[in-house]
Every structure is written in C-alpha cells, then in structure tokens.
Design a protein that fits this description.
There is one protein chain. By secondary structure, the chain is α+β, with helices and mostly antiparallel strands. The protein folds into two domains: about 120 residues, Four Helix Bundle (Hemerythrin (Met), subunit A), CATH 1.20.120.730; about 120 residues, Severin (3-Layer(aba) Sandwich). The protein has twelve helices and eight strands. Strands 3-6-7-8 form a four-stranded mixed beta sheet, with no helix packed on it. Strands 1-2 form a two-stranded antiparallel ribbon. A hairpin with a 2-residue loop joins strand 4 and strand 5.
Length: about 300
C-alpha cells in the first residue's frame, strides 16, 4: 500500500511525502484467522458502526454487527475448525475475546438509543471513538477492574520505606467479581471509579481515608488524602500512575456499594446486562451461537 502527500512548507518549498506499508497476504483461511488482530478488528467495527448510524436506523446497525460476528465465526467453524458437536461453540484462538468486545460495543451510548441518554452524551462518545486509536478503543470497550486489597497489592516495607510492586492483575468486568469487603478501581481511559464494598473493614477505611468507618465517608470526595502509611501510598501510586498514562484527564469518583451513584459505576461492568439496554455477555454469546448453528444448517 502506498500513500502520497503533496504539500508546501512554511518557506514555500513544495514537497512530496510518500508512505509505504507492506502487509502479509494469505490464501489460506486458517492462516487468516490465526493471525487476526482482535483489537484492530473491533476498532474497525466501532468506527464503521458509528459512521453507519448517521444514515441507518440503530436497529439495522445492531443487526449488521451481530450478523457479521456470526458469519465470521461460522466461516471459521465450517472451513478451519476440527469436527465437533453442534452444541459446542468454537472460537479461533486469536478471537476468543471478540464476542465480549462486540457485545460491549453494542451497549455503548451511540448504539443503545435509550431516551435516558442525552443526545450530547451520545454525540460526544461517537466523536471520541471516531478519533481513537486501537488501544484506547479496546480500553473504552472493556475497562480495567483492578482489585485493591492487601494480599493483591503485596505492600512490603524495607528500611522504613514502602517498596513498589507490580499492578494487580485486572479482573473480568462483572458484578460477580466484586466482594462486599473489597475495594476495586475501575478505569476506561475516560472515567475512573474507586468502588468500596459495604463490608469494607474499618482498618482499610482508616488506612485509605483516615476515617473510622465507611459510613463517615462523604459522597463528594474526588481525591484520596495523602496519608503516611504503605497501603495509602501504594493505592495513590497506582491511581496516579494510571492518570499519567492516559491522554485524557480522569476525575476519580469514589462510590460506596448500594449508594445511588453506584448505578453509574455498574454501567461499566460490561459483561453484565446493560442498564440502558443490551444483553449480558453470556446471553449475547448464546444468541450468536444460535445464529452460527442456523448458518451451518
């Protein structure tokens, strides 16, 4: 592939800039599915869908996304996969997470069409995604849910100083992964939440907020106090590290379990049923599986 750009510099000099890109090609479907990049694929589908909604009804766009997903997976099963029972869903190794990203895409504000979402909110997200790169789109569609508990953080002290450790492994974005006694950080590059379970231990609240219990926490807090203890330093270090990595400014929203603001937090748990419409990941997977079976019969 070759792209040429003819332009004039500020000094009046005419220049021609040429970009060359070499891509591997294959006539074998198995090689195509083996080398497929799911992140790039979902970025393409997101932009295509957001362009299509300007000229087509939302229902049609959503149906097209489901049909394309089913056709891609049916094609793999028919031409590449080993023979297996019809009741078994077969996914390419490189596309194991594709259905969860597709389901999350269909639950985004521009594609839901709920009257509870403002036109400004839907338009803003549409324009944001149209300008996003692959990594940013991936994070938006599947936020990082990070457990912030002592055994996961593994805070150690040497010579009176806390030592930094690796970031805890993210969990699947589902309510099932939350614990009543836990503290979890969720971020998607645009929003950041610190979720606190209703049974959070008093010593945890004391270490992070310098408060005797969760009941004393004020709902309007948007930053953690700077406390001189290893756990507080580690949690603030994780939050600050994520803020520095993201190109957008994210306001930290502190949410207590079962409080009203928790509804906003739960809409980012993309494997669960959408608050404004949209199936859970498992329901979507079952529906796609039925579509695949119909295509193959």
């Amino acid at each position: 592939m070759q792209c040429a750009l003819l332009y004039t510099t500020i000094n009046g000099q005419r220049r021609l800039r040429i970009h060359n890109l070499s891509l591997n090609c294959s006539s074998q479907l198995s090689e195509l599915y083996k080398s497929c990049e799911t992140d790039s694929l979902i970025n393409f589908f997101a932009k295509s869908a957001y362009r299509a909604i300007l000229n087509q009804p939302l229902k049609n766009v959503r149906e097209i996304l489901v049909n394309q997903t089913a056709h891609m997976l049916a094609c793999y099963r028919k031409n590449c996969a080993s023979p297996s029972a019809a009741s078994q869903l077969i996914l390419p190794d490189a596309m194991k997470v594709f259905p969860v990203y597709m389901n999350s895409l269909m639950k985004t504000a521009p594609l839901v069409g709920s009257t509870e979402l403002s036109t400004d909110e839907r338009a803003h997200q549409r324009l944001s995604v149209m300008a996003m790169g692959v990594e940013a789109t991936q994070l938006l569609l599947y936020p990082r849910l990070i457990p912030l508990v002592r055994d996961k953080l593994r805070v150690h002290t040497q010579h009176g100083l806390s030592t930094a450790t690796a970031l805890p492994a993210p969990l699947r974005c589902s309510e099932e992964r939350l614990a009543d006694s836990g503290m979890f950080l969720l971020e998607n590059g645009h929003s950041m939440f610190l979720w606190l379970g209703q049974a959070s231990p008093p010593d945890l609240i004391q270490s992070i907020f310098n408060l005797p219990s969760l009941a004393h926490l004020q709902g309007h807090m948007c930053a953690l106090p700077e406390l001189d203890n290893p756990l507080s330093k580690k949690v603030r270090s994780i939050i600050n590290g994520l803020l520095e990595k993201r190109p957008n400014s994210m306001k930290l929203q502190i949410v207590r379990q079962k409080d009203k603001p928790e509804m906003l937090f739960r809409q980012f748990l993309v494997e669960d049923k959408g608050l404004h419409g949209g199936a859970s990941y498992m329901d979507f997977l079952c529906y796609v599986h039925r579509e695949i079976r119909q295509l193959l019969t």
